[in-house]
Amino acid sequence: MALSDRKLKILEAIIREYIESAEPVGSRSLSRRYELGVSPATIRNEMSDLEELGYIQQPHTSAGRIPSDKGYRLYVDKLMEIRKKANKNRVKIKSDILKKYGELEQLLEYTSRVLSEFTQYTSIVLAPQVKKSRLKQIQLARLNDEMMLAIFITNTGLIQNPIFKIPADMKQEDLERISNFLNEEFVGSTLEDIESKMAENLKKELAKFHHTVYALLPEMFKTLEQVSDVTLYLSGTTNIFNFPEFNDLSKARAFLNLMEERKTISELISRQDTSKFNVSIGSENKLQEARECSIVTTTYSLDQHAVGQLSVIGPTRMDYDRVISVLGQVSKMMNEILKSK
After folding, report:
1. Which residues form the Heat-inducible transcription repressor HrcA C-terminal domain (predicted)?
2. Hey, is 88 helix, strand or coil?
């Protein structure tokens, strides 16, 4: 059942008031603070309908009402529609705020601090995932009679230098020719692409260089796969104590424990959809420990391919408009910086 414009307006006012005050909202305060064009009695009747429909609820100890997850979901969906049409940012962030950080690790760490500072919630930056990175260069260099160094450089700045045992009769000229071939064959490919390209037809090509190369190749790329694919940068974890919803120490402790589980966090914020923003509200979250929270996530990209994620996590009483504005701008900055690297 679609809500009337009046009900939508009252629901939005309830949510905005609750986000700001953290106190249950009554009809009289709505009538005083918002130009709804109706009497407190009419507002009270509409609130009763909204409660019956599951968009708001009554805390046990109060006469006022607070939004439910269903109410927040409708609010966020309407907010996203409005933002698409208006294309305005509520918060303005200087466009060069991230540019002074040349190293990827420094950039990601500082980005998490910027997100936390501008939203006042906990921020999570998921580093580029190795499997989604694209090879930029492969170089093989002989170290001695038995060992060679393999240098892998990806488009996200990841550099891996594994060392491998080689036959004594493999010369540096062999390694250079193999390097050239591998660059022609694999540069621009992701690790996922490489797995499919390492087919039987490569065996014949590589056999021209040295009989042991084809056997060595899977081992070489396996070292890249073994690089941790869950590198997270967190900031503002203790901001959760600023919100009365987490005055209950058991809730706060559960949140802090969750923030220590890097792999779990990665799974929690992982996105499968291709929409610009993903908003997961309260009970929509997969983990019980996150059911008191909302998580807003977007991606940052390189060469139009999403390589990492930016997330903000806070109470369901989150200032969604502000968070989405900040994430959108920071994502755009990250895209520009990575493109120039």
Report:
1. 105-324
2. coil
Q: Is residue 80 part of a domain?
A: no
Tens-place pLDDT, residues 235-288: 999 999 999 999 988 889 999 999 998 888 888 887 655 568 999 999 999 888
Range of the domain at 302: 89-127+230-340
Sign, Cα dihedral of 281, 287, 289, 295: negative
Neighbours of 313 (CB within 10 A): 30
Residue 221 in tokens: 């790329």
What pLDDT is recorded for position 281? 96
Question: How many domains does the structure of the chain reveal?
Answer: 3
Q: Are 69 and 283 in contact (CB under 8 A)?
A: yes
List the single range of 202-216, 249-263, 306-320 with lowest mean pLDDT: 202-216
Cβ–Cβ under 8 Å, residues 289 and 277: no
For the chain, the C-alpha Rg in angstroms (whole number) is 26
